[in-house]
Automatic annotation (TrEMBL), chains A, B, C, D, E, F:
Protein name, as recorded: Creatininase
Family statement: Belongs to the creatininase superfamily.
Keyword Cell wall biogenesis/degradation included in the entry's annotation: no
Source species of the chain: Aequoribacter fuscus
InterPro entries: Creatininase-like_sf (IPR024087), Creatininase/forma_Hydrolase (IPR003785)
Any one GO MF annotation of this record: metal ion binding
Cofactors, names only: Zn(2+)
Amino acid sequence: MQLSLSTWTDIEQYLKTSDAIIIPIGSMEQHGPTGLIGTDAICPEVIAKRVGDEHGVLIGPTFNVGCAQHHLGFPGTMTLRPSTMIAAIADWSLSLAKHGFKKLYWFNGHGGNTATIQAAFAEVYAQRSFEPSPARQPALRMTSKNWWELPSVMAKCKELHPSGDGMHATASEVAVTYAAYPDQVRNQTLEPKIAPIGSFTDAEHYRANFPDGRIGSDPTQATIEAGNTIIDVTAQALWADFQKFAQS
Amino acid sequence: MQLSLSTWTDIEQYLKTSDAIIIPIGSMEQHGPTGLIGTDAICPEVIAKRVGDEHGVLIGPTFNVGCAQHHLGFPGTMTLRPSTMIAAIADWSLSLAKHGFKKLYWFNGHGGNTATIQAAFAEVYAQRSFEPSPARQPALRMTSKNWWELPSVMAKCKELHPSGDGMHATASEVAVTYAAYPDQVRNQTLEPKIAPIGSFTDAEHYRANFPDGRIGSDPTQATIEAGNTIIDVTAQALWADFQKFAQS
Amino acid sequence: MQLSLSTWTDIEQYLKTSDAIIIPIGSMEQHGPTGLIGTDAICPEVIAKRVGDEHGVLIGPTFNVGCAQHHLGFPGTMTLRPSTMIAAIADWSLSLAKHGFKKLYWFNGHGGNTATIQAAFAEVYAQRSFEPSPARQPALRMTSKNWWELPSVMAKCKELHPSGDGMHATASEVAVTYAAYPDQVRNQTLEPKIAPIGSFTDAEHYRANFPDGRIGSDPTQATIEAGNTIIDVTAQALWADFQKFAQS
Amino acid sequence: MQLSLSTWTDIEQYLKTSDAIIIPIGSMEQHGPTGLIGTDAICPEVIAKRVGDEHGVLIGPTFNVGCAQHHLGFPGTMTLRPSTMIAAIADWSLSLAKHGFKKLYWFNGHGGNTATIQAAFAEVYAQRSFEPSPARQPALRMTSKNWWELPSVMAKCKELHPSGDGMHATASEVAVTYAAYPDQVRNQTLEPKIAPIGSFTDAEHYRANFPDGRIGSDPTQATIEAGNTIIDVTAQALWADFQKFAQS
Amino acid sequence: MQLSLSTWTDIEQYLKTSDAIIIPIGSMEQHGPTGLIGTDAICPEVIAKRVGDEHGVLIGPTFNVGCAQHHLGFPGTMTLRPSTMIAAIADWSLSLAKHGFKKLYWFNGHGGNTATIQAAFAEVYAQRSFEPSPARQPALRMTSKNWWELPSVMAKCKELHPSGDGMHATASEVAVTYAAYPDQVRNQTLEPKIAPIGSFTDAEHYRANFPDGRIGSDPTQATIEAGNTIIDVTAQALWADFQKFAQS
Amino acid sequence: MQLSLSTWTDIEQYLKTSDAIIIPIGSMEQHGPTGLIGTDAICPEVIAKRVGDEHGVLIGPTFNVGCAQHHLGFPGTMTLRPSTMIAAIADWSLSLAKHGFKKLYWFNGHGGNTATIQAAFAEVYAQRSFEPSPARQPALRMTSKNWWELPSVMAKCKELHPSGDGMHATASEVAVTYAAYPDQVRNQTLEPKIAPIGSFTDAEHYRANFPDGRIGSDPTQATIEAGNTIIDVTAQALWADFQKFAQS
Ligand code: NI
Ligand code: NI
Ligand code: NI
Ligand code: NI
Ligand code: NI
Ligand code: NI
């Protein structure tokens, strides 16, 4: 069940049985010469929709542009400043709270978003914490999970790509996007086969250190099959984790 | 060609032949008991992707949550405050400008976004206008078009729905979403058949005046066929209009 | 009746019979070599004060600097960024709401303000729409009207200046300022007689395309007499339109 | 010479001989039962225009709504939040700097504005101070003067109103507005004759302590004659002070 | 009694007998070749802690970086923009208000902070003034005092340093820091002995006019003994002034 | 070497040999009935100063109020909203960058700060990433480390407190503060001996779940001796880690 494909009366019904929602959140940023710019939005979106379809959980629209300033040295990357992202997450959250949603599960596809998502949660909570008691703003509970950190997911990724899964433009995330968009599979040799690793600051620094955009990965080993496996495993893990959250 | 489904090297290539991009921009808001909450995002997205597929134009990610505070009285509606939306549009625009895009065509699906989009353009332009000469920030040109206002589109909508096309949750926009998502067609009688018209201020006021969310429309006459016709007509109009913009 | 020239006890009295106010809003921007920088503030101010004098309607202070970033290439132009203007309009509005004003009629003299004014309204409404029910913030109703778009005004302007009324630094608006400040009439030949038309983005772009600041106009035909006629016609139209608003 | 009543070519000429401007800045706030809400805007405006007329100094538009949150308990008062006022003063200042103005003399009519004006100056200066050397932003010099603190002005006010000139809604400022708007003279007995004095925090606190709005004043002694005297004296003092500033 | 060195149960107890707190507020800015960068934070902190120790008054954490953009031309200076400082002071104030503190005494060590502190107070008060009655936010009372302006303090400073106490990097404030940190006494000849005086705008301007950072002062005469005397006198004055405030 | 206790000429000298600085960053929040409100600021401050004293590293002022909205249910807690904290960290960072510092090591004492610190870094980096090449803003490198996560520190803490070290108001952090302020040791029995564990959202939720403020800890076992041991171990680890950073 997708919010975007529901009517308001559908949501009114849904709220009679659940006050929880999953919101995919990603990024629009380079993922090396063979990875799609939308990778970090596509992964959580595809997995969340699978859970939405199979279990009737409501899936919100995808928060598709995130914190990617460090990738701005590569054409196509788009970013929000963290302060903008905090304001936007707050507006999304307060909109849902207005309708009676009390548990927001942000399902994240981009490590670079993690800090700002947590800062946004604190910004939203702070509004209520500053209020005199009793607060008028309804209590919200928010959580954020990176898809690759759900139980058993990383193990599966490492099993599928024992070497060169990497940190950015990973074989696993690229595989998920190939499974989601089979006509977008890229066949290209990358040099070096496994990209260098390291840290980074701003866009200039990132590009100087990671000239083709990858970090520690060999995404050429990504396959549609592996992608489908990862989607299956992660969807199961998401469903289990979300249930716990929704019932907490 | 979609930014989300491109690699950064694809975009690097694209920029050698074009510095223009189409960005669908919509809203996540109630569209009556039979219209989808994502209607205003779906319509420009579907039409833009058609043009992107047929003509190789680059289509950006969809800016999917817009200015919909007046619909917050209906479950599922999500909104940005205008100040947040201005910040986000600015960040998207400056990201694209960084790569050399000089012409941003925002293809809009929600009348309520129009003013804030224009304000955002002025915010972006103002940064450069305030700069001492010569400005360091590259010159940008931005335009925003509502899909139903492209040449010949409204005429076709009125031809298809001579009465009760309406102002919100229109038969035409609902038809487009049914064409895009045929499994989401809703069959339901609405009372009154054609919704009332009028103006509105905030969410409470809107709901009091338009109890089921529609304004002036009878979306029950929406069909997949009509939706496909509208998509065809609008895609042609968009392509023509975009070409003029890209060459200006 | 002007807010600036009233005491607080006057306003206390006024609020017993009306909760509506007219607020002139303009801009401080170049209007070609013969038009005054204050034109867009002067026009709505003069017309509104006429209505205030004749009918006892309360006229607020003039919001005199607006959105004019595109005119910054010409000496004397002043602008707010849209984000600043939204904050300021919100503060003005909430100040008036605090006292019991419920209907704010912003009488606008500058087309470039329109979008940001509407965005500001949505910003103010959104505060209330986000509030849990029942809202504590009082309900406000706001409207914005461009003086030249009131019924019969444009017809009169075209009648007075059948050719070359134009889009910026129009003969009509310059005439109004000459009527208001007869000692400021400028007699100067402009070349070309009717300025070019077109669109614009930032200040550099505007000045490159409209070298003396005018768009499509020949303001040399402006006369005090025409200005007085326009003031008369517009004041009548404003009074009629405001009454409808105040009683809605 | 007033910016509002000048053309851009006038300002272009002016800038060849001077890079300094006077900007009246006031407030829209209650001034007791006999004082005008616009008092603090009217006083600096009238005096500055006198200097502008007599000496050809350029007078900017009046910044008419300032920091008056403490007066919001009285109908008609309007305020900006300090953060909004800082943003607006910055935009005004940077607009003028764009054209080559280097010396901005803010001529203030409201004690409650003083702190925020100084904070706004620091905000503007900070932008340049943070810049790497050499700064691209042109150097600005800004000063703010309260009209009653110019040399010899307070002495004249005390001479005219030896007792009960007061701190808010003073006899002197009310006299200036009566001189400026002779048809607005109010004749009313106030009780007590001289209002109480004290400090205040927010609007509720202010109204509780100063029930009719005045602080320490007996404005019933205000006369048109005294107002004209004060305007004369202050205009001379302003001209002298401005000259020093413009030549510094 | 220091907030930083108290437990929450200590504060719970304190609030049963007092709703007032002293918060030292300073700056991190150059104080000439012999003055410490922390001078303006150290002075109010040391004096406030003395009062806290002697009288059981609660002393908050030191707001240690303030408004010092004009000193950015000298290594080590740190500043907040005024808009940031307003937001921070508001957050500190609303945190304390949440617990029941009603009287906040900001004890200031830097003249350059004064305006922004006052603006911050107005920002906080404005929130409550804008609220519909009855306000939900508790009423707060805030004051700010510069330590050298407390009764009898300046007289003592002038007595100790009859010539060359100065305006920035004063002999008196340097003496206080030497008393507080005896191992930080600097012995160095300064040229000229007494620094020049004047006004300033941004960092470049300041450094050009005051090449070693001092204004009007000869801090080489600062001694530990004088510092201790000033601390004694000021602590007594602070205690007296705070008592009046706490009981108001 | 402390910035606060240095002169600007000292810093000028320091910058000739190093462009790196350590900035302690903490929080002002309840730490249970026996822990000090300043604990999270005291711990990094004490350890950093140790390193500053021993190795001549420059230690910045302590950023003493952080992200603690969830503790606002306990008297004495102070917080910044994340958006304020981002602005403040940006201002601190850009101040230091102005002088030539290129490596900022934020030494953190509060887990709740981590996300917002990272978001602030991205905010600062984004400014430069958005700039056209070549960027004018100097390149900065920033890192943030939690003191308890430095190599070997947690092992030592667990060795000292094998059970009940906990997550908030830990025995280890309380021990550090007792070592730093021996006169602040609290002897009090806590019930239950080891506090419950769990997650939290806003202040109301936190207090409901952790009634005395502790999470998972038994801080009654904290001793001055253990504190000194932890300070020793952590100072060594900090020095090693900082050296790597400063040379990177
Ligand atoms: Ni990724
Ligand atoms: Ni729609
Ligand atoms: Ni105009
Ligand atoms: Ni006044
Ligand atoms: Ni000082
Ligand atoms: Ni802690």
